[in-house]
Amino acid sequence: MIVLFLCACTSSYDTATKKQEDTEFEMTDYVVQFDYSYLMTFHSCDILVNDCGNPSEHTVHVAGSKDAYSWELLTEIPSFDSSVPDIIIRDEILYIFALPELRRLDLQTGEWLATVYPQILNQDGEQIIHVDPSLFIDDENNIVLFFMEAQEGLNPATCPLGNLNCSKYFLSATEISGSQGSVYSVDDGVRIEIQLSESQRIAADPDIFRGPNGYYQYVSRGQNIQAFFSPALRGTYQPLSTLDDGILTRGGGGVPAGHYSFEQELFFTFVTTNIDGMSDIRLAIHHSVDTPIDRDSFNTVISGAQLFSESHLVASPGFIALESNR
Questions:
Q1: Exposed site from 32, 136, 220, 286, fewest CB < 10 Å?
Q2: Are 319 and 40 in contact (CB under 8 A)?
Q3: Burial class (CB in 10 A: 0-12, 13-18, 19+), 1
Q4: Quick one: which H or E segment has residue 208?
């Protein structure tokens, strides 16, 4: 439920990218108040109606939960056609990235800002192709995108046809001041480089979050998750040394979202699990990423049958935690 009310209050949002004490701000006038502890974006597709292999036939939704296990759709936030979304809150604006669009909701007024097409510019000022952006707010209050570099006409998750060995590059880009999340400048260096091979042919869908001692990125390796760490936000991320090649889960699911609760000292790991051409969203809550997560540790938290119909698949979670005023 979303409630609009008049108040003069202090709110602390604990996003998937910021500790609670980093995100305190004053809210006055009309405020969109979420009566939830967590929000999630994801996409759905009806396999009986749509070509679900085509991202343009996916539909993006926003759901809310009080415990991260039971979710309900926020009908007040309209669904829209797009795919692979992510969500963040900064300065009382809720941002939903679902390429090629960025949608922004003003939480003070309840008004939607104009829909825009976010751009990432290289050092020469030229626009580069980016896919699967994951969102973070840095210490200067800028939105930072973590994304895959892509080439037109090619599947960004795999090697070009006929080439079984190639490298995939995961980069970051920082918001240009005053653009309200619409324009970014690519950061120096490569955040993650992954060598693909005939036996490991997929790397995609990065997800960034803050955790103990630094920053973590999950990368989808098919139905596996590879976990990376860097002490610096814009540093070089390496596979977690305590895991075999950084693989956090094998066969549990891919297209992940991660979060660390500093208050609870717990990791939240969401995955998209594919079974017989369908997919659902599952969650494991765990104390550490030093040891692998068994696939049986994941519980289904969102399914097509639960929210839509038996013929709907759901996939690609984007997650934030928030503390509401109650």
A1: 286
A2: yes
A3: exposed
A4: strand 204-211
- Whole-prediction pTM: 0.89
Query: Does residue 133 sit within a domain?
Result: yes
Q: Residue 28 belongs to what domain range?
A: 2-321
Query: Can you tell me which residue has the tokens 């800002």?
Result: 113
**Spans in the chain with pLDDT lower than 50:** 1-30, 324-326
- Distance from C-alpha of 170 to C-alpha of 172, rounded to nearest angstrom: 7
The predicted pLDDT at position 163 comes to: 84
What pLDDT score was predicted for residue 321?
95
Q: Provide the domain count of the chain.
A: 1
CATH code of residue 270: 2.115.10
Task: Give pLDDT tens digits for 151-189.
Answer: 777 788 888 887 888 999 999 999 999 999 999 999 999
Neighbours of 17 (CB within 10 A): 25
End-to-end CA gap in the chain: 13
Question: DSSP secondary structure string, 61-126?
Answer: EEEEESSSSS-EE-TTS--EE--S-EEEEETTEEEEEETTEEEEEETTT-PBPPPB--EEE-TTS-
Q: What is the pLDDT of residue 325?
A: 33
